[in-house]
Each structure stands twice: as C-alpha cells, then as structure tokens.
Specification:
By secondary structure, this protein is α+β, with helices and mostly antiparallel strands. It has helices at 2-14, 28-59, and strands at 64-74, 80-89, 95-104. It has two helices and three strands.
Length: 110
Amino acid sequence: MAGHLWRFRRWQLHSDYSVPTIVGRYGTREAFEYFMKNKIVIRTAVICVATAALTGFLLVGCDREVSNTKSSSESSSGTVKTKEKTVTQAPDGTTTKTDESKSTTPPEKP
C-alpha cells in the first residue's frame, strides 16, 4: 500500500499534474520551491510577531511596593478583624494607598 502511494506521489511531482495558478507559468519544481519559500517567510513573520509581543510584557514596568502593614485584633465574641495597608509606587512616580479590612466570625457551635 505504501509503495503504491509513493509511486502516485512521484507521478504527481514528475508529471504534468499541476496547480493551475503557479505551475502554469513554471515547472513543478519551481512551484514546490515557491511554496516552500513562502512557508519559510510566513514562519519567520510569525516568530517575529510572537517575539515582539512577548518582549512587550518585559518592557512594561510593574508597581513597586513601598510599604505594607498588617494588623489583626480579636474581640471577645471571637470575631477577628484584619486590616492591611499597602502603599505602591508606579513607574511614573505616582503613589497609591490601598486599605483593606476583613472581618471573620467563628462558626456557631450547635
């Protein structure tokens, strides 16, 4: 079976079997080289675009954390209150203060 397919493929490459647009002007070998050349160009373009997209993330600066303070307190009922204060600085120099407070209550006992 494989020998039959190989003979058919060899017949396609070395006969007048052709793609109408390219092989009409050129021979079969020239058409094959034309497609392979375009395949390499497209592959190179895709690699260049992917590389540019990935390096874009590396060039963008991230916020720098200037200070971080955490404090928690527990009340007599068992409720725990947690406060977190964070100060960050952006690459352009602006600072941002963030205050987070969480309160958790213990599950009720049956």
